[in-house]
Amino acid sequence: MAGLGRNCVLCARKSLLFHRSCLTLTRTQIPLASEVVVTQVRGTKRWVRPYLQTLLNRINKENEWLGPLPPQPRSSKINWNYESELFAFGPRLGEKLNMNTLRAAFTDRSYVEQEEERRRELGLPLEDVKLDMQDNSHLSEQGWELTTNYIYRFIRAEFPLLPEEGVKAIHDYVTQEDMLVWIAKHLGVKDLIRCSTFPVPPPVTKQVFLAIIGAVKHDQGPQRAEAFVQDFVVAQLVGKDVNAMWDVPNPMGMLAEVLQKEGRGEPEPRIINQSGVNTVTPVFCVGVYSDKELLGEASGDTLPKAVEEAARVALANMFKTHEGRKPLALDTRLKTMAEITGKTQYLENKS
């Protein structure tokens, strides 16, 4: 027992000496209080990252079990102000529109019926159930009439030699539902549409976009509305191949009809060049002639395909829709039939 007690005393002495030496070393290295510089370190705490990672893992597990959350309209957010967003829509597009007209353009008929049904369920009197709210039916009709008329006139002015079937095909391409919905979404109309269903169906988005054009016509006149159509709808033709929009079922037959109307000879396809005829990848280059004049040439892996493609190239050259044509006249607006007629006669005489 005596030896054990002596060992304990020795250990205590060694520990005390060790702490004294550490204290002496610390005192010699610590500067004076006047020389201490305290700096504040700003940053994220250590617990933030694992905490957020835990929340993310929990959200992912809930999405796996219950599925993703359904889409919510922008109006469900706390910081949403419909009147402010509606007021900012016109200046964002550079248009001066009346608030009542713009509000009617964004209101679908289903929204009005939904609000009236909700009031009816609340037991309000019949005179209070009927809402004095205008929907966009009338404005969309005006917008569609102006849009289709202006696009037809613009295409006819740009391609006066193109048949009516080709003009209609280009018009249908520009005014198709997917195209108008794509334009409307990029203009920011999705969050402003008042509809009974969400997400907003594409037909409702198209009708709202046409109603906006009708609102521009109602507040600023038809010329400003035509400029709106040209800037946002007709401009979608830039960089597009108009020949791909019109699928001609029988190009050689149509070429023969066009040449017959002009009093020229029938089209004659001839092989200009060919390569690899006896291989698995042959190439045939065919040219279409009329009265010893080359109308168009193209190549294909088979002879019928080359003849058909050469006929399409010949039609594009005759209708002035080939790739080497001049760009669309988006800087000028041809609004009168006199200008269109004069341009058509000029191109016909030049050809």
TrEMBL record:
Alphabetized, the UniProt keywords read:
Mitochondrion, Ribonucleoprotein, Ribosomal protein, RNA-binding, Transit peptide
InterPro entries recorded: Ribosomal_mL44_DSRM_metazoa, RM44_endonuclase, RNase_III_sf
Q: Which Pfam families match?
A: DSRM_MRPL44 (PF22892), RM44_endonuclase (PF22935)
Give the location in the cell: Mitochondrion
What Gene Ontology molecular-function terms does this entry list?
A: double-stranded RNA binding; ribonuclease III activity
Q: Does the keyword Ribosomal protein apply?
A: yes
Name the Gene Ontology biological process terms: mitochondrial translational elongation; RNA processing
Q: Which GO terms describe its cellular component?
A: microprocessor complex; mitochondrial large ribosomal subunit
**Which residue intervals define the domain Large ribosomal subunit protein mL44 endonuclease in the entry?**
81-215
Q: Specify the Large ribosomal subunit protein mL44 dsRNA binding domain's residue ranges.
A: 246-336
PANTHER family from the entry? Answer: LARGE RIBOSOMAL SUBUNIT PROTEIN ML44, RIBONUCLEASE III
Q: Which family is annotated?
A: Belongs to the ribonuclease III family. Mitochondrion-specific ribosomal protein mL44 subfamily.
Q: What is this protein called?
A: Large ribosomal subunit protein mL44
Per the UniProt entry, what species is this protein from, by scientific name? Answer: Branchiostoma belcheri (Amphioxus)
What is the organism lineage in this UniProt record? Eukaryota, Metazoa, Chordata, Cephalochordata, Leptocardii
